[in-house]
Specification:
3 helices; Rossmann fold; mainly alpha; 4% strand; single chain; 89 residues
Amino acid sequence: MIASLTLAQVSNFYLAFDANLTIIPALSKLDLPVADAERCMQDVQTTLGLDPSEVLKISAKTGLNLDQVLHAVIERIPPYGFHVVGRER
């Protein structure tokens, strides 16, 4: 069985979270035969406390949902130097 989250991913998540950075979670490599998206989504929810509906499901190899990545960056990351109500920097 392949681990769905690595120690480095969890560690980097908490570094970004503690720094109050916007996090855009993405589940990649969905084109692989061993991809277990359901288990990965459960791990993301239980380990990181993220809402699975916010996780982008992508594959760079097949191009699956890559347009959603740029859209998420534009929609979720506030412009530099601007304060977004309800979010402390």
